[in-house]
């Protein structure tokens, strides 16, 4: 039926299944005689085994989703993977999604493919409206496609950075709807940035007849992000949404899913991909989903939510112990931020130093964001880069509860962060004592004189 099984399969069953697919490819026929330039020849047995002898890749030269006559097994693998992934996207909350396909490129290049496809529909358009998010690949995806990003600064509401809808609409009127390729919005992001107001943006796009592409990089794991996409498509316009395979399904980096609500448009994107493609991302995600089954994936989603609440409560306690606070970002369901105001006031370099200390103590993924850093990306200069705003009120530290995180990860992170912050406190006290002694000595010398 092309659906993800409810209960996962054991490894032997999966391997048997993959071997059955592989023997349907011509390079594995016993009597095959290949006289073409691409015959699935692999000189290393180790490489052949690594790919389960599925060597031909997926698609044909004109369409990544097309069937290859001499690679029936690889073609079937491709069709099944897309079908199973579509089933899981519906399970995760976007129930009316009509089509999707796995593409062997990470999220940034997959977004570029979407923009290039829209170019044929809107040949006069040169601008992309982009509510600011300080992440390089999604910004460069627009530059690589040859378009001019129009950066919309976020609005500070409490601690949260939210979409400036008035600025979006004003810019559409200023540039002219026909000159805008699309609105490029974001769901999953680092706090204090929160998901864009997708429903309102979708309505604006529908009203002005402008396409809408959503960067849903690690949003499949969040029911809130998926709900926003579902609602946006229901009340307005969302043409495609793109998500990473490694961030949502715990497979190696190098694949993404392009999905949407209009099957013909998604097929149009797949036909834009030039040439055949590697089957590795499709193979990895199919193996993973067959191993988990829907019950296993639902369990991971549930555990992630529980860990988010645990991380939130424990990080809040730690922050208060160090006279800091957990920033109030209720609209961000994955990422959290803790202020580093006292650290920043003590020493300008201390915030960056904290990041280095955590990394050398084997804490990966945590980000420290100082105030006022400036970065130039493709000739565009961003003030306050990484904080998603020109002047965010304080420096802060990010931590995320992403799929696959365990309680042990949270506990070890908090313990090491606490130790690092205590080290800074101790050094600050020592420096204060030294300064006091120096001042006292100076006064004594003056009195003696």
Walkthrough of the structure:
The chain has helices at residues 11-22, 45-50, 72-92, 107-121, 136-144, 165-175, 198-208, 223-235, 245-249, 263-272, 280-321, 341-346, 350-360, 407-448, and strands at residues 99-103, 127-131, 148-152, 155-157, 160-162, 180-186, 212-215, 240-244, 256-260, 335-339, 367-369, 374-377, 380-383, 396-400. 48% of the residues lie in helices and 14% in strands. The chain has 14 helices and 14 strands. The longest helix is centred in the last third of the chain and has 42 residues, at 280-321. It has two domains: 11-295, 3-Layer(aba) Sandwich (Aspartate Aminotransferase, domain 2), CATH 3.40.640; 297-435, Aspartate Aminotransferase, domain 1. The protein is globular. With 449 residues, the chain is an alpha/beta fold. A seven-stranded mixed sheet has the order 1-9-8-7-6-2-3, with helices on both faces. The chain has a three-stranded antiparallel sheet with strand order 10-14-11.
Offer a few descriptive terms.
cytoplasm; alpha/beta; Aspartate Aminotransferase, domain 2; 449 residues; single chain; selenium
Which secondary structure elements does this structure contain, and how are they paired or packed?
Blueprint: H1 11-22, H2 45-50, H3 72-92, E1 99-103, H4 107-121, E2 127-131, H5 136-144, E3 148-152, E4 155-157, E5 160-162, H6 165-175, E6 180-186, H7 198-208, E7 212-215, H8 223-235, E8 240-244, H9 245-249, E9 256-260, H10 263-272, H11 280-321, E10 335-339, H12 341-346, H13 350-360, E11 367-369, E12 374-377, E13 380-383, E14 396-400, H14 407-448
